[in-house]
Amino acid sequence: MNVSAVTDDEHERGDPNRTVSAAERGRASQEVRRRRWYLAAIFAIVVVATVVRAATLTAGLPYTSYRDEGHVLIPAERLVARTTWDPGVYQYPTLVIEAAAVSVRVFDFVRGSDESKAGARESRNAGYYDIVEPKTLIVAGRVLVLLASVGTVLFAMLLATRLRGRRAGIVAGVITALLPALVTRASIVIVDTPAAFFAMATLLLAARLPDARYPMRASIAAGVAAGLALSSKYQAGLFLLVVLIVVASRSTAISHSRDEQCWL
Description:
With 264 residues, the protein is mostly helical. The protein has helices at 3-13, 16-54, 69-82, 95-111, 115-126, 135-164, 166-178, 180-183, 192-208, 215-232, 239-263.
């Protein structure tokens, strides 16, 4: 028997195992390229979202530039001036107020200075609504809101990707990155933007809950996100209902599955 002829015949027919392996490698390589393009798109959208939002970060300084900024910054100024955790007013929850105050105090600690405390006291004694001291308090509050706004864009992309795929995620990212209503509220100190950030985080975590590997941890994480949304704005506490509904739905599905197995 001619060995070379057999070898040539096998080569012409092709090795089935080798053909399957090559196809799998091709699909895997294509998936890697798609994932890289998707990650590059996410990065580009986040950069664009940050740039368009940061353009007005210092607008109006050393004064506030939006009427609602004082509702957050004046209580925060009071925390800095009196070295207390009690803002004295509770028109809004205290998370954003305390976060702004803590940011300024950390900045003072890094500089080894106590200027913020003295400036806050002078400003409160003056009694003007549009004047907030120190100026770094306004900037710190706006930076925190800016980060929350960009985070909302990222979470919106991830949520849409999970629900409808990568193309939907990119479309959601472009919309949330450039939507005027979100852009204009990204560099002023208000509670709505952080509340939207934690609300979006709640939705993303709740969407992951039904097939989570560790459902208890996922439920706790979603509950914490909803609690932080409530701590930013009272109305955002309604997102706790989302977590409860998803947890209840998952429990019901598991119960029905067990009942079917018992009948089988």
